[in-house]
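Quick sanity check, Anthranilate synthase component I N-terminal domain-containing protein:
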Amino acid sequence: MEALGLSLYPPISFNPKLSGTYAPTTSSFTLFHPPTIRFRPLRCSGTLSSSVDHWSKFSEAAEHGNLIPLYRSIPSGHLTPETAYRCLVKEDERDAPSFLFESVEPGLQQGRFSAIGAQPRMEIVAYENMVTVMDHREGRRTKEFVEDPMVVPRRIMEKWKPQRLDELPEAFCGGWVGYFSYDTVRYVEKKLPFSSAPKDDRNLPDIHLGLYDEVIVFDHVEKVFSLLINKI
C-alpha cells in the first residue's frame, strides 16, 4: 500500500516528491475503527484572515470559483511539525485518520515543507464493490454498491471550482489523502475478480481516503507555519 495525497488545487511549477505516513507510524495501516475515533475541534490563536490582503482580489477569485482557501501564517519559533502533529493526534490514538507529509528534494536532508492534517471532514472506504462514505461534518454515513469506487470522490468533487492563489505555500494545501491497496487493480482488470484474491487475513479496505479541508503547512525556509482552511 502507498500513501497518497490528492490536492484540491491545479498543479503548480513546484515539484517535490511527497513521502509520509498515513496515521502515526503503523505498519498495519489499521486506519478506521469507528468506536475509537474521537474528533476534536482544531483551535489556534489569532483570528483567521483571508488568503489575500485586499478584498477586491478575494472577490475576483470568487467570481471564478467556489472554493477559496483562507489562511494565516505565524512564525514557527520552536514549534516543530512533530509537536504540532501530536497536538492533533495523541500517542494512544493510533487508529485516528491523519497524516504528516515531508517534501523530499534531492541532496537535502530536510525538505522545505511539512504538511499536517487530522480529523478529516469526510472518509471514503471501499471493500470490494461496497463503498462507505462517512461525512463527519454532517454526521451521516451512506453505503452503495458500485463497479468503480473512484466514481464516488469524483461525484463529490464535480461541483467544486477551486482557485489556486499565489499567496498559498507551494505545498499540499488540502484535499484527499489515503491509500489504494494492491487489490485495487481488480476494479480495473476484470480478469482479476475478487473471488480469485488471496484470503483477507487483515480485514483492510481496498481503498481508504480522507478529505482534509484543514491543513497545517510548515515552511522551513521562511520559518513560518500556515493554517489553511478550505470551506467546501
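Posting the structure with no commentary besides this: The chain has one domain: 2-38+46-229.
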